[in-house]
């Protein structure tokens, strides 16, 4: 029998399609050119079933949705204690690109804000990022060279963060090289189907639902989902968790993932953002899914 899920997912998109609140991310010139009408939704379940509706074939840059996956790779490579020496796990309550560190330790507060993600990236090399993201997605991901160049040309704030991190001994590497690599990581091209499978891998205790590969160990998936829960939606994390109630991560190109432990991964795309940098219609879509499907973890 044909699943009712794709029709239901299309209905959810239609119900949210008229909303046009929010703005494109203007601080990365290339993202300001995106088509704001794009709208897509995908789901991947632990048995490898996948559904995608709307503009599901549109590829866009992963941006901050790369942060939990890079964090997971750093945990695998260095272990929890070593990673915690560089970056904490506390919500910052600040904007994602705030130039701030924990005053008592000089560490970035968490790996989801830019300061923490730049630090995490410094713990990985380019080959590890490429191979690790390919394992999460189940295919090799390409860099969007135009978005990468556009972001790097205007990355003064991230350079300021990286210099501050090196000043405090949190990163060892050359700040320019780290921001360059981090920007390439953020410029990897994905579609909502890729993101749903990546989220499902975390939700599935680190095992990829389609390839069957144990991409990261269970403890790493748990640590990553926990940090997504408390910090993934930045200074809207409390609103998100009370209303939607699942581990999540947003990106400034309008992507948004949610991972339901044991149940699978969802991903939405809609480029207009709210003041926190989270996709406006993406948040609406997840609020609806959570209400209709009883996804809230509480
Ligand atoms: O570093 C930046 O500012 C971007 N590459 C990523 C920021 C981002 O996606 C914030 N999330 N909503």
Automatic annotation (TrEMBL):
Reactions the enzyme catalyzes: L-glutamine + H2O = L-glutamate + NH4(+)
Keyword Hydrolase listed: yes
EC number: 3.5.1.2
Signal peptide: none
Binding site for substrate: 64, 114, 151, 158, 182, 234, 252
Keyword entries, A-Z: Acetylation, Hydrolase
Gene Ontology terms for molecular function: glutaminase activity
An example Gene Ontology biological process: L-glutamine catabolic process
EC primary class: hydrolase
The organism's place on the tree of life at top rank: Bacteria
Family: Belongs to the glutaminase family.
Subunit structure and binding partners: Homotetramer.
Protein name per UniProt: Glutaminase
Organism expressing this protein natively: Agrococcus jejuensis
Residues of the full protein shown: 1 to 298 of 421
């Amino acid at each position: 029998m044909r699943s009712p899920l794709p029709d239901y997912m299309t209905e959810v998109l239609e119900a949210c399609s008229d909303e046009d609140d929010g703005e494109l991310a203007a601080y990365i010139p290339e993202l300001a050119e995106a088509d704001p009408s794009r709208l897509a939704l995908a789901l991947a379940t632990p048995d490898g079933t996948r559904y995608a509706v709307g503009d599901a074939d549109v590829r866009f840059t992963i941006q901050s949705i790369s942060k939990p996956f890079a964090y997971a790779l750093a945990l695998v490579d260095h272990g929890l204690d070593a990673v915690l020496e560089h970056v904490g796990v506390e919500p910052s309550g600040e904007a994602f690109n705030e130039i701030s560190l924990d005053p008592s330790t000089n560490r970035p507060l968490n790996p989801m804000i830019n300061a923490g993600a730049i630090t995490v990236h410094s713990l990985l090399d380019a080959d590890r990022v490429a191979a690790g993201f390919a394992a999460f997605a189940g295919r090799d991901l390409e860099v969007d060279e135009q978005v990468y160049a556009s972001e790097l040309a205007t990355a003064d704030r991230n350079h300021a963060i990286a210099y501050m991190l090196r000043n405090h001994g949190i990163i060892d590497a050359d700040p320019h090289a780290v921001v360059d690599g981090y920007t390439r990581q953020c410029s990897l091209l994905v579609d909502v189907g890729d993101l749903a499978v990546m989220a499902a891998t975390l939700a599935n205790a680190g095992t990829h639902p389609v390839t069957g590969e144990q991409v990261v160990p269970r403890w790493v998936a748990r640590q990553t989902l926990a940090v997504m829960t408390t910090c993934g939606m930045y200074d809207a994390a409390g609103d998100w968790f009370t209303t939607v109630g699942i581990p999540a991560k947003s990106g400034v190109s309008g992507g948004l993932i949610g991972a339901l432990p044991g149940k699978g991964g969802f991903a939405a795309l809609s480029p207009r953002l709210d003041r926190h940098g989270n996709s406006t219609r993406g948040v609406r879509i997840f609020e609806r899914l959570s209400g209709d499907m009883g996804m809230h973890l509480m």
